[in-house]
Amino acid sequence: MKRFKHMPQFLTWLTGITAAIATVGFAVSTPANAKIGSCTEPIVFGTTISESGPFSTLTSNWRKMTEIFAEEINKEGGIKLASCGGKSVPLKFAIYDDQSVPATAVQLYERMASVDQVDFFVGPDWSSLGGPVPPIAERHGIPIVMGNVATPSLYQRGYKWVWGTPAPAVPRWSERYFDMLTHVQPKPQTIFFLTHDNPVMKAITAFWSRKAAAQGLKVVGEETFSADLKDFTALIAKVRGAKPDIVYLSSFDNPSVPLVQQLRQLKVHAMDVHHTMLTGALAKQVGNDLEGMTGELTWFPSVKGPYADLFDRVMQRTGITMFDSIWTLARLDSYIVMIQAIEKAGSVDREKVQKALYKGTFKSPAGDIVFDEHGFPDTGAFTIQMQNGKVQVIWPPDVATAKPMWPSPTWQ
């Protein structure tokens, strides 16, 4: 009991949390009654999804997607357990709405551990939630594979029960794009970075501007803009003055909408304009202005890696496309990684699953997920280009759906 030497205070705190949850009325699937180590009961994954609050725009239909994922896994037999003589057991989810609120997420993961007694945690998403939730997994000794929690420092706190599947990781974000630049003709000589003032996007620019210089590209400008900037005239004047071969936009989609529009209006010319987050949401807002631009996409169904058919079926049944819901891969990866870890462990034994996850390598449709000693993954992305209004994978060549249009004809 040394770990809980202040047990009375802890119990008082826990009771308060349970009472608070009971009064809020969170949406939840059928409550879990997991029996850890059983060969007959379902294996229960506890998760929260931001179904309301500011992050809800990024998670449309994820509850349905999660339920369909379990259906598809169970259709294929479930999760195999060597400790049960190779018998497969069903997968089940306990799902709550964390309301995009960190304190709510903390309460719900505590509930799932203490009241629902789930077997394992998957999720949550977003760094604001991925910061306060892991201590609950640590305290209860429950392995957790988070989804879209991309801040590396959140994994570097000495945790032993925490992993994540954000995609792509910053050091591999534009890896394939810069590889493509070494093969295209004519080769670009200069690059200009325009960066949304956000920790992730600033980290991307910091890493890839160094990579560009090491690769022989001259960095002729680096400018940062705030998320609420609407008039980019001054910044674009600097771009025009520098005359870069490549304009690299390191930004989330919504803040860069007026930037993309004004780059077109002010007739900026370049071999390519590259956007780190080329998405359906951006396409819907800027329309044809996106034509010819390149960017990153974590996965496309035409890339037939492991579990590609499973993920494609789940998304089709749910009505989700990867271009419109770019965060979906990381969320589904958290599920499939946990299943693989359980099957590697051969039982619903949390300590054995923890050992299977540690510095493990797991299969995903986009390629292997390799965890470092902190539980952070080595994940990349594919280079895409908008060609005649359609998303095309253009790099690497072995999975490309079209050849790069180079230099981009719409930016000449």
Describe this structure as you would to a colleague.
The strands form 4 sheets. Strands 9-8-10-11-12-15-16 form a 7-stranded mixed sheet, sandwiched between helices. The chain starts with 6 loop residues before the first helix and ends in a 17-residue tail after the last strand. It is elongated. It has 2 domains: 2-168 and 303-370, Rossmann fold; 171-297 and 382-411, Rossmann fold (3-Layer(aba) Sandwich). The chain is of the alpha/beta class. The chain contains 13 helices and 16 strands. Helix 1 (7-24) crosses helix 3, helix 2 crosses helix 11 (308-318) and helix 12 crosses helix 13. Mean pLDDT is 91; it is low at 1-34.
What distinguishing features does this structure have?
412 residues, alpha/beta, Rossmann fold, five-stranded parallel β-sheet, elongated, disordered N terminus
How many angstroms does the end-to-end distance come to?
70 Å
Class inferred from helices and paired strands:
alpha/beta
The CATH superfamily of the largest domain turns out to be: Response regulator
The total beta strand count reads 16
Mean pLDDT across the residues is 91
What is the top-level CATH class of the largest domain? Answer: Alpha Beta
Low-confidence stretches: 1-34
Share in helix: 25-40%
Overall domain count: 2
Task: Report the CATH topology name of the largest domain.
Answer: Rossmann fold
Helix and strand run = HEHEEEHEHHEEHEHEHEHEHEHHHEEEE
How large, in whole angstroms, is the Cα Rg?
A: 23 Å
Q: Return the CATH architecture of the largest domain.
A: 3-Layer(aba) Sandwich
User: Main sheet?
Assistant: 7 strands, mixed
Shape: elongated
